[in-house]
Amino acid sequence: MSKRKYVKQPLSEWMKGEGPDSDVVISSRVRIARNIRSMPFPMMAEPQQSQSVMEQLLDVAESGRLNGLGQLERIRLSDLTELEKLVLVEKHLISPNLANESRNGALILSPNEAISIMINEEDHLRIQCLCSGFQIRQAWDWASKIDDIFEEQVDYAFDEKHGYLTSCPTNVGTGIRASVMMHLPALVITGQINRILSAVTQVGLAVRGLYGEGSEAAGNLFQVSNQITLGQSEQEIIENLHQVARQMIEHEKAARTKLLSESRPRVEDRIRRSFGILTQAMIMDSKEASQRLSDIRLGVHLGLIDDVKDQTLNELLVSTQPGFLQQTYGEALSPEQRDMTRAELIRSRLATGS
Ligand SMILES: Nc1ncnc2c1ncn2[C@@H]1O[C@H](COP(=O)(O)OP(=O)(O)OP(=O)(O)O)[C@@H](O)[C@H]1O
């Protein structure tokens, strides 16, 4: 895989809109945080210490032990431009933290981009597995196998009483964050979302936006993840999230059916208006784009819009972000120019349909 592919193509394989319940769930993710025993956490490490952590972890990928994942790409963040790092954040392959703050940060990426292993982020090692649709158990299965391979070669910081030790106390224990990215427009339109999200937080789950911690839930996309990492087994964390997400999926599907049976003209009008605007507008800011693309996604799944694929909508989620637009058009764009190029890109992608 060339560097060209992972920064030039907006769509990772796990965003193809396939997988179970992909009418509601965009993607499932598990990430595992680990650290090397007797090494300061990245934030406290001296440059030569974080360099040694990076080399040690990159060596595991070089050793051939991860060969089952395909031809891995090993990327030192210092070899990337700021724009390339931003694009990787927009593709969910690295965190803003790794892009902006990391010293001796690196990334190990699988060819299909479903596995991205961050080095020297908040912790020495962050293993991330992404799957299309509702496949949280599958994501856990992969992440756990990769974790075992690293554990055979690296002495992890582990405490008998507390479990795996991490830089932030909220990750101590299992070091796992499992999350499901869901599109919940019908719950928003029918006014049920606040009740559901507050019930979800009461059972110990967190709700975040499209880009994780600190990001807003734009375009009716909500990321639901576990908050507790201590005192529960990995299996319990995964199963608890699975159960709650399953209920949310059913609520969303029921709300869609109700919308269609009780308010079809109003919903259809809203969706067709958004389609009209997206296929005609000359200027489109990112907030409006995500809201109207959410309407189109709903329209597709209600059977009110043909000829647009989930894949196209997922691709637009990434390709209309500021970094990606700038990369596509090959120059620094002002906010006004970005709004114009975003509108142009959406018009052309929706015109070609798929
Ligand atoms: N289900 C998911 N599908 C796609 N991307 C996801 C999903 N869940 C999280 N992400 C992405 O992972 C990145 C990090 O998310 P987030 O900040 O929630 O978690 P984290 O970094 O693993 O945890 P921490 O809070 O410990 O830093 C974000 O870019 C977010 O968009």
Automatic annotation (TrEMBL):
UniProt xrefs under InterPro entries: Arg_Kinase, ATP-guanido_PTrfase, ATP-guanido_PTrfase_AS, ATP-guanido_PTrfase_cat, Gln_synth/guanido_kin_cat_dom
Enzyme Commission designation: 2.7.14.1
Binding-site residues, ATP: 27-31, 92, 126, 177-181, 208-213
Domain of life: Bacteria
Motif (RDXXRA motif of the pArg binding pocket involved in allosteric regulation): 338-343
SUPFAM superfamilies: Glutamine synthetase/guanido kinase (SSF55931)
Name listed for the protein in its UniProt record: Protein-arginine kinase
Originating species: Cohnella kolymensis
Species classification: Bacteria, Bacillati, Bacillota, Bacilli, Bacillales
